[in-house]
Design brief:
The protein is mostly beta strands. The protein contains three helices and 22 strands. It folds into two domains: 167 residues, Sandwich (Jelly Rolls); 102 residues, Jelly Rolls. It binds fe (ii) ion (FE2). This is Cupin type-2 domain-containing protein.
């Protein structure tokens, strides 16, 4: 019985690092600058940190180290006014189609992103987004720093004509559609930050699952965090591994058993769609798919160094 308290402590500690979709609520008042502007309405569900919202005191979210994770929900016809940040911010589309616009000097490039596509919004670039499709958009936003500064609004309807704000600052004729091979400087810049799921190589690990690297070696090479999509077939799992930074699994499809290990004790729990586990630096952890269908998992690692883990099949 001597090690019972350790086991309980491990279980409690791990449970405290799980964010369950069903324990959380969407917050329609996360962004004070949207209040009073029906066209800007969006809801935020916070998992790690406050994301781009000022709600840093929310105790139901996990503490951020190097990145935040939230879900954003937006309905057809709504948009987000063009703004910029001092840091990178990624949008991973989960459902629906999202138009993202980048603005510079009154010119805008708009890209249409579908499920599992991602854009990393560059530092200091004016960006906004809009739902023109027939279904709402669910996306996961990560800001690559624990506590980002508030956004700087460039074309907000409080001081910009509504139609100009909706087009992210482009007058008629000043909007370009995204072209990966375009020669305009803004096209060239955006092309480095747009990731299409269908264009990314699928890497088969010897341990029996797939990775697509969105941010990191092979994807957008960057200096902040690594972002990957994992495809884990039924009955595949890996042995415990440890990182010197935190990481997070956000399940998109299927379900995943995740576990922690400490002094020979183990604790595991199942994550379903839109459940998240954050594992702190130095904590041995592993995953296994016990389901009949494959699991698709959005995976964020707290630095952009080359991969140090060699996954071993469990
Ligand atoms: Fe932003």
């Amino acid at each position: 019985m001597d090690n019972q308290p350790t086991k309980l402590a491990l279980a409690d500690r791990m449970q405290a690092h799980v964010g369950r979709f069903t324990d959380k609520v969407f917050d329609w008042k996360a962004f004070p600058s949207n209040v009073g502007y029906e066209d800007l309405a969006r809801a935020q569900m916070r998992y790690i940190g406050a994301g781009g919202s000022p709600k840093a005191g929310d105790t139901s979210t996990l503490k951020p180290d190097n990145f935040t994770v939230s879900l954003i929900y937006k309905e057809p016809g709504k948009y987000a006014a063009c703004h910029s940040h001092e840091i990178e911010e990624s949008f991973l589309i989960i459902d629906g189609a999202l138009i993202v616009g980048w603005e510079r000097d009154g010119e805008v490039v708009e890209v249409n992103l579908g499920p599992k596509d991602m854009i990393l919004n560059a530092r200091d670039i004016g960006h906004g987004f809009r739902v023109d499709g027939v279904e709402p958009v669910m996306m996961s936003i990560s800001v690559d720093v624990g506590k980002p500064l508030p956004p700087v609004y460039l074309y907000h309807p409080k001081d910009t004509a509504p139609e100009l704000a909706r087009s992210f600052g482009a007058e008629p004729g000043k909007t370009m559609h995204f072209d990966r091979n375009g020669t305009h400087p803004l096209q060239k810049q955006m092309a480095q930050y747009v990731v299409r799921h269908s264009e990314l190589p699928t890497i088969w690990e010897d341990a029996g699952f797939t990775r697509k690297v969105y941010v990191g070696k092979g994807g957008i090479e960057h200096d902040t965090c690594r972002k990957e999509m994992l495809g884990i077939p039924s009955r595949v799992g890996v042995k415990p591994f440890t990182r010197d930074v935190e990481d997070a699994f956000l399940v998109l499809e299927g379900s995943l058993i995740v576990g922690w290990e400490e002094n020979g004790e183990k604790f595991e729990t199942e994550l379903g769609p839109r459940d998240l586990l954050k594992t702190p630096a130095g904590q041995p952890h592993w995953f296994r798919n016990n389901g009949a269908s494959h699991a698709t998992v959005w995976y964020i690692v707290g630095n952009a160094e080359a991969e140090t883990v060699k996954y071993e099949k469990a």
